[in-house]
Amino acid sequence: MAIVNRLTVDGRDYFLPDPVTGLKTQILEAIKAGGGYVNIPPLRGGPGIDILFSPGMPVTWSQIDVGDSPSAADDTPVDAPDEFTL
How many CA atoms within 13 Å lie on the side-chain side of 48? Predict the structure, then answer.
């Protein structure tokens, strides 16, 4: 299983790969300094996005387990007869 981190900033969600320890530190430092921009890297390729963090801004972190492949139950064929067929 892969772990994806969700960062919610002022009601907007950003999904990030592990590790996020350095990013958490940058955000905390920006807030302690009274505000500052932090680059949030993308889940996949790209330049990321700069977000201005400031004291009092609602920021929430959560982790989501993402399965690598569908479960075996999803591969079960649907060949059961229909009860309502005449």
Answer: 10
Give Cβ neighbours of residue 51 (< 8 Å, ≥ 6 apart): 9, 37, 38, 40
Instruction: Please state the pTM of the whole predicted model.
Output: 0.69
Please provide residue 44's backbone torsions phi and psi, each rounded to the nearest 5 degrees: -120, -175
Q: Is the pLDDT of residue 59 over 70?
A: yes
Q: Residue 21: its pLDDT value, please?
A: 93
Within a 13 Å sphere around the CA of 60, how many CA atoms are in the beta-carbon half? Answer: 8
For 50, residues 6+ apart whose C-beta sits below 8 A from its C-beta are: 37, 38, 39, 40
* Of 80 and 45, more confident: 45
Helix%, strand%, coil% for the chain, nearest 5: 20, 35, 45
